[in-house]
Specification:
Number of helices: 2
Number of strands: 9
Distance between the termini: 56 Å
Largest sheet: 9 strands, mixed
Radius of gyration: 20 Å
Helix content: 10-25%
Shape: globular
Order of helices and strands: HHEEEEEEEEE
Strand content: 35-45%
Number of domains: 1
C-alpha cells in the first residue's frame, strides 16, 4: 500500500512540474518588436472599462532587444522611463544618444521612473505613474 502511494505521489509531483517559459521570465528580447496602441482604460471608482482607440502612428512603440524604447520613426520615446517592470521583473531601459528625438525638447514631461507592464503573448498593458493604463498589441 505504501509503495503504491509513493508511486502516485511521485507521478503527481512529476506531472505538476511546469517548464518555465519566456513569458515567466520577461526580457527585452521577448517583447521586442512594434506595438500599436489599441485601447485605453477609462472609468473611475471600480467601474473601469477598456475603450478602443483609432489607430495613430504616433502612438506606436518599438521595443528593441537592446532595451531601447522607440517611436514610430525609430527615435527615442519622449519622457522615457529609467526602467520597466514587466510581470514583476525590473529591466533597465537603455538610451542611445544617436536616436535622440529633437521634438522631446518641446515636451514638458512629468517624469515617471518606472513603467509597469503586464505582458501576455501579443498584448502589453502599460501602467504609467499617474495610473493611466494603455493596452498595446503586437503588430
Amino acid at each position: 500500500m505504501l509503495r503504491q502511494l509513493s508511486v502516485l505521489l511521485f507521478l503527481f509531483l512529476l506531472l505538476s512540474c511546469k517548464k518555465d517559459s519566456d513569458e515567466a521570465t520577461p526580457n527585452f528580447a521577448s517583447i521586442s518588436g512594434t506595438w500599436r496602441l489599441a485601447e485605453i482604460e477609462k472609468g473611475t471608482y471600480g467601474k473601469k472599462f477598456w475603450e478602443k482607440v483609432d489607430f495613430k502612428p504616433s502612438e506606436t512603440r518599438i521595443f528593441g532587444t537592446d532595451g531601447t524604447i522607440l517611436d514610430k520613426d525609430g527615435l527615442a520615446v519622449c519622457c522615457s522611463p529609467k526602467n520597466v517592470l514587466i510581470n514583476g521583473k525590473t529591466l533597465d531601459v537603455r538610451t542611445n544618444p544617436s536616436l535622440t528625438n529633437p521634438l522631446c525638447s518641446l515636451v514638458d514631461c512629468i517624469y515617471c521612473e518606472t513603467w509597469e507592464m503586464e505582458w501576455k503573448n501579443d498584448e502589453i498593458i502599460v501602467t504609467y505613474c499617474d495610473g493611466a493604463r494603455y493596452k498595446y498589441l503586437r503588430n
